[in-house]
Amino acid sequence: MKLLKIDENKDKRSYEIKIYGIVQGVGFRPYIYNQAIKYNIKGWVSNQGSAVLMYVEGDRKNIKEFLLSIIKNPPSLAKIEKVEAYLHVLKGCNNFKIKPSSVEEAGIKFIGADVSICPECLNDISDTTNNRYNYAFTNCTNCGPRYSLIKKLPYDRENITMEKFKMCHDCEMEYNDPTNRRFHAQTNCCPNCGPKLSLLNNMGEEIICSNVILSAINILKDGKIVAIKGIGGFHLACDAYNEESVNILRQRKKRLHKPFAIMVKDIEIAKKLCYINEFEEKILFSNKRPIVILKKKEKSNLPDVVAPYMKKLGIMLPYTPLHYLLFQNDITCLVMTSGNKSNSPIQFENEKAIENLRAIADYFLIHNRDINIPVEDSVVKTVCNKEIVVRISRGYTPFIFPMKYNIEILALGAEEKSTFCLSQNKYLYMSQYIGDLKNYDTYINFEKAIDSMRSLLSFKPELIVHDMYTTYQSSKYALSHTTRKIPVQHHHAHMVSCMVEHNLFCPVIGVIFDGTGLGKDGNIWGGEFLIGTRMNFIRAGHFRNVTIQGGDKSIKEPWRIAVSYLRSINYEFNDIVNVIDEKSIDAVNQAIDSELNCYETSSVGRFFDCIASLLNIRQYITYDAQAAIELENIIDPSVKDEYQFTVVDENEVYIIEYKDILLSVISDIKTKKSTSFISTKFHNTIASATTDLVIKISEKYNLKKVVLSGGVFENCHLLVSVINKLEKANFLVYYNQQIPTNDGGISVGQLAIAEAMEGK
Hints:
Oligomer: single chain
Radius of gyration: 28 Å
Number of domains: 4
Shape: globular
CATH superfamily of the largest domain: ATPase, nucleotide binding domain
Largest sheet: 11 strands, mixed
Distance between the termini: 25 Å
Low-confidence stretches: 1-9
């Protein structure tokens, strides 16, 4: 940040000042106005593009104090990235005013995220004497939707989806009153002039009732499923304590096992369900209001069907006025899952939501404030007292990060957990989570989201970056354009995503564990030890390849993976766990012998699937990584045992053998050791083997900084174990925190790699 140096020798000065960052839609101009009045400053302030521009004149001491107050104590939602100040000729202004906004095509642009209702607005909707009592769209400059409503910059009412609502006289008075917290609040409204709620049945017919919210509450209490339109899209909601309702929601949504997130009335209810430390509570109460993954209490009256086979629970607190209003008349806990069909994108338009969700929802609680950019709830957890973002979306996006070079690049990410990223004016902009691009509707949303961001930022890429795997839909998008393109290796992108977050440019050891990613040798990688920089890398080590039969089908049927591993060491699957018919097993074995629909992989994710299958935890999955997640779920932290493992050096590349580990697991299964014991012992072994190989690579290449990334490191037990072991061995360890370690972070790594290659 460039601070203004005031000349102490002259009494009167004037400056033109430009402030970049999250400075629009957060009450920044009103704040500047009031500070100008306080310090007797004359001039004006205006939005320009996505920056704030002001001309100020006054006593030199007053200007200095005025600027320091703005820079050091900006509004709570503001985030200043850069300040530019230039001497100007005195104009002789008589007052200070807010001028109309202007459009600026060039220059740095910043976009504010959607945030939760503030305490003052919460008081408004709870106060029976307030004109916004029980009003579901109450907001001010300190809270409410931002990103989901914006259509273009600058952030003014005519450029957001609130444009169709003309403010009434009272709201206009607030909007123009410098002493009011709704002064220049672009989303300002009240029951007389703002959006309205409606309650519909699943045929789209309006339910006539005196109180829409109380009627919706009664419907939820009756065990019905309600599709509720929020800030960034629809939720499917039901009473979380009603086991029958939750089961019906699972059946209708075809979501058999994947845990549901819940929204609870208050922190007291949350603490009855989960163990919550001070740091986790702070995240729950933050204005981002993500879903926080927390450890469940053993004695809870919440039905297991909410999060089957899980010791953890995803909880969020209410974050809109509507949410708070729903928690009345004994409603304390609601399932709040994304309003979509399984594997489809979130619904955010009224008519399409009714059409696509009527087979799931019994009723619809909708409103007439349009959503321009759909955003899901963000999901986070805590590891080593750090916030770890699992799914980046509402409140966290657009994620904006400074970069080194001024190159306009579009990075398209992976295929699952899709995000995209672009760079402009030495800043990186990361999109919200979009989903699995194999789904046609999700892919259409992906295209629309790119177009929307390009329009907002007046962005024209010089370069498009995509995954090496050209069958990914994101890669196909790149290949359909004439713009110059660069393919990037999947695991290198994982490594660099973490390097970006921690501002690393030096060579590092990258430990990248995931399920799938095309390697430079044409095989599927996933158990990688890389050394390199942002620009390039070499593969220093990996887990031993195994031949797996079944293609994508094997990922959904872990028993196929286990059969494939066992085939490589001459073991029969049903000799270990007799749950799959012999005919199916024979078919897989014959296909392996014939090399039919097989692939070679070093994937640690697939190794976890194999062990989960052998322990008969999961033979078929219904959501991504289910087998590995449930394998972690049965861990016993008191177990410190581990299996023997072997590391060999082949042609200057270290290989971790899986055979000895697998044979030991089989031995423990045959001697009837508990699944919890075996799972923990296996996790401990992977952590020790990882540490052992990092030490070997460090000694060979003289490197002490280690980056951990990839979807397997969503496994908290493994991540913490590896961190602890490496730090004990005196390594500097870095891992993804604000940029997802899963494929949601790939686009960031891709962009940074391309930037390093182009900016060299």
